[in-house]
Amino acid sequence: MEEWKEYELGELITLNSGGTPDKSNKSYWGGDIPWISAKFMYDDYLYSSELKISQEGLDNGSRLAPKGSILLLTRGSGLFNRIPVCYVMRDLAYNQDVKCLESKNKELISTKFLFYWLMGNKNSIGAILETTGIGAGKIDTNRLKNIRISLPPKEYQQALIGFAESIMHKIELNRRINEPKTGRGTLSLPLFNSMSASVQCPCQHKVRTNTITDRVKFLLLRRQLLNLKGSLLLRNKMRQTKFTKVSVRVFHPFKNSLLC
């Protein structure tokens, strides 16, 4: 079995900044390219935006985040309350307060795995949060690149992706079911008295954790799963979703034993 390897995040990712076209130039705005700023980064998956720019606006002051990349807010007062990490579902533009992240080597780490790793490790990102001279939050990109990641083999990565997408799908489905009731996608009244999901992580590879080292490292992966679950539930609370009981049963993706 392949070994776990430790990297600095900067060894695995590319980082690009966006921009804002001149707002006084009407020909730059009102096109068909969604333009993302902090106030549009409340969903985990980005499809569109209320603000759109033209191709001319993109060429004169902004940058395109390709489908399958990640947007991370790195500047703004909102960072003191939450750290938005969003997966890009279509090509779209973004402003200068946002960074676009992609995997340098998709054979080593997929961008989708990177997305869920970032979601599950927001505490590590929050630990490097700084304050600018005007009181806004700032994530220094050099310090971000220095964050260390213990990278599991591809089989483990696929297991984590399968787990995360199962939970994300469940939450997104609940949000869409309730959205017509409020018109905003936030709950003013409880929709469920309980939410219980049994999730079987899809993994076509047989992975064994026979050694003590492998078991310890799998426990670290398990902690990332739990951190991710916690961040998803917290996001629901921020949307005023009220559950009297939340129970998510997750099976060991390699041994089919109960994790939590």
List keywords for this structure.
globular, disordered C terminus, single chain, 33% helix, 2 domains, 4-stranded mixed sheet, 7 helices, alpha+beta, Adenine-n6-DNA-methyltransferase TaqI, Chain A, domain 2
What is the element layout, followed by pairings?
Blueprint: E1 5-8, H1 9-12, E2 13-17, E3 29-36, E4 45-46, E5 52-53, H2 55-59, E6 63-65, E7 70-73, E8 75-76, E9 85-88, E10 92-94, E11 98-103, H3 111-120, H4 122-126, E12 129-131, E13 137-139, H5 141-146, E14 148-151, H6 154-182, E15 195-199, H7 212-238, E16 246-250
Parallel strand pairs: 3-10, 4-9, 15-16
Antiparallel strand pairs: 1-14, 2-11, 3-5, 6-10, 7-9, 7-11, 8-13, 12-13
Helix pairs in contact: 3-7, 6-7
- Give the H and E element order: EHEEEEHEEEEEEHHEEHEHEHE
**Count of discrete domains:** 2
Classify the helix fraction into a percent range: 25-40%
CATH architecture verdict of the largest domain: Alpha-Beta Complex
Distance between the termini: 25 Å
- The number of helical runs is 7
Average pLDDT across residues?
76
Would you tell me which CATH topology of the largest domain applies?
A: Adenine-n6-DNA-methyltransferase TaqI, Chain A, domain 2
Could you say which structural class the secondary elements and strand pairing correspond to?
alpha+beta
Quote the beta fraction.
15-25%
Largest sheet: 5 strands, mixed
Please compute the radius of gyration using only Cα atoms.
Answer: 19 Å
User: Which regions have little confidence, pLDDT < 50, spanning 5+ residues?
Assistant: 182-215, 240-260
